[in-house]
Structure formats: structure tokens, C-alpha cells
Amino acid sequence: MHLAAILDSLAFAIVFFIAALMARKRGRPRREIKSSPEPFVISPCAGCELAPLGGLETRLNMAASARVVDPASWSRMLSIFPGKFSFAFCYGSAAFPQKGVAQTKNNMLDVILAVDDPLSWHRENLKENWRHYSFLRYGGPYLVNKVQKDFGAYVYYNTFVPYDDGLMKYGVISTDRLITDLLDWETLYLSGRLHKPVRILQEPTPEIKRAMSLNYMTAIHTALLMLPDVFTEEELYLKIAGLSYVGDFRMIVGEDKNKVANIVGAQLGEFRKLYSPYLKLIKMVSWNEATQTFEQEPGPDAKLHHLNLLPKSLQSHLLKVWNKDGRHRDLEDVLQAIGNDPHCSGFIEEAVASIVWRSSWGQTAKGIITAGLWSAIHYGSKKVIKMLKSLTTTQPSLKT
What we know:
Blueprint: H1 3-21, H2 58-63, H3 71-78, E1 87-91, E2 109-115, H4 118-128, H5 140-150, E3 156-163, E4 166-174, H6 175-184, H7 190-193, E5 199-202, H8 206-226, E6 230-231, H9 233-242, H10 259-266, H11 268-279, E7 285-288, E8 293-296, H12 300-308, H13 312-322, H14 331-340, H15 344-371, H16 373-390
Parallel strand pairs: 2-4
Antiparallel strand pairs: 1-2, 1-5, 3-4, 6-8, 7-8
Helix pairs in contact: 1-15, 4-5, 6-8, 9-10, 12-14, 13-14, 13-15, 15-16
Cofactor: Mg(2+)
Family: Belongs to the TAM41 family.
Transmembrane segments: 6-23
């Protein structure tokens, strides 16, 4: 047996052992969202009274910053895959400019494909694109699907896949899992990725659109709880963009230390287009034209308002953080207490970090076997080099 195959097999055994230790409770019901005809507006969440967007279609709001540069090129790329997608988008430095990151053909394009039936999709994709997969392909679609749905953040990535004259990394997730993460922040993996501008390759279904709208809203509520009473537009977007990196172990080793500032700095206009309509719907925060800053109400009532509108998983982790002393207070009492606590933002950050830490470890461990050990080492080494370079780079200014 070749050394690469031996190492891949060893990695497979190690990662499955780690994943078993990190297994979390499954089957948590997600927030339900009701269907409505197009054009759709933001669906009210529990305890939240939202005004319509004044006729603005959500797809315009979501996609204003996400138009593809070369639609024909993206269409050709999607044509190599079988079946239909409920949503497809790309992201990263190959899709959007980032400060401090050169735009070259060497940048690997990151793509996400949401499908209704991952097992059937992998079965067809293995027939058409056998070489995209690591040694797991020898286990067939059932093994691939099991690895996707049982470990990490429910995304299965194939890396270093050639397309046109470049490379891409594409991840597959079930439609149901994507919606659950958007609504509840179970992993804050793709829901966190979708807090930031993306390039839409295949328009999302109406149900995914509604879940994305709620994801934007809850990102704002979460960021407001972590921001001071007066803050700038840039500070708001930095906080939102940084949510999915809080607690991510890759930010300790393997990621550019200026990553969040690089993203927001180069895409400030895109963030503005994405979030401006939703900010108009948020209570207890206003824009001061004279000072060019946002001002939010500082009292416990305002904090409790935002706390009540957080995603289910984040509220659950807040409950665990507050009950560390062994007492068993219910959610209503805990949210009330956190809203009155001067260290409210610290509790929010700790709860977010606990979600991200688990999913980032699990997904990275899974990446060793889905990419193959050699590819994982190659990919990881590039990340580490970027991180080391960032340590000697001044954090970019966000002014435009």
C-alpha cells in the first residue's frame, strides 16, 4: 500500500475518533417559517414586529452586492455538477477582493452547493466527477453522505478541483441543514459565512431566502449586544463579519490575523447595500447624521429586546454559560439577568465562541479525510503562510 493511502487511512480513523468524542445532541427542531408568495418580505420572528420592506424584494436586498462578474463563467462551472441546487454561491478572496490579498488565478474559489438529497447527489457526482473525491470515494455515496451529515458542520468539501484555468473548493450541504443553521445558528458555519456578501450562482428558494433574512436580522441583534452605545458603521460591519470567527481555533493558527478587517475594508459598500434595509427595521437604534454614527438605547430593556430575538442555539449556549455554577435557572430569567448585567457583551461573546469552537474543530478534522491528508497539508500550509505574513502587516484602514 502506498504511503499516502496509509496516512489517509490513519487520518480517517483518527478523525472519526475525534468526531465521536465531539458528537453533539441531534434532532433539535428548528424554527418554522411559513411560506408566502413572491415578492416576499421579512417574516416576523417570535416577539418581533417588523414592518414590510416597502415593496423591496428580498432577493434584490440580498443580491445587490452579489452580482456575478462573468455569469457565463459561473454557469459553465455549475454545469460540471449533476442535478439541481436549491442555492449555490461562491465566496472568498477569489470571488471578492480583500485588502492585502492579491487577485490572482492562484486564489482558490470557494463554492457552496445546497441540494435537497445529498445521497442521490453524491451518487451522481461520483459517477461524473470521481476524481474530485479523496479516498472516501471507495466507500461509495453512502459513506460520503454519512461523513457529510454526521460530523462537523454538515458540509462535505472537495478541494483543489480544476475549473477553467483555476482551482475551486466546493462544499455540499443539504437544504434542510442549511435552513436550520440560518435560523438557529446550530454551527454558525454557513450562517456565519452568509453574514458577509457572497456571489450568488443559483438563486435560493423562497424558504432559504426567508431564512437568510432572519439570519441577517439576528446578526444585527447579536452585534448590537456586543457594541457600545455609540458606534460607527464600520464597527458594526466588523462585529457582524467577525461573529463566525469568534472562538474559531483557526484564528489562532492558520488564518490571516487581519482577515475580518480585510473583508470589511474591501467590501464596505457591499455590506452597506446588504444591511441598510434591515437596519431600518431594527428598534432602539438610530443613525446620527451629524456625527455619522449609530446610537442605540443603552438600558436593560433594549438589551432584553435583542436577547429575546437571538437564534435558538445562541440562547441555549447563553443558558449554559450563565448556569455554570450548577444552578438551573430558566431561559427567561437568564436573559433578564444578562440584560441587566454590565458584562452582557462578554456573555454574548462566550456563547458565540462555544458554538464556533466546536463546529470549526469538527469541520477542520473532517476536512483531513474529505480532502485527503496530502491535500489537507498542502492547503493548511498555505493558510499558515498567509497567517505569518499577516503578523507583520499593519491592519488595514476601513475608510473609503
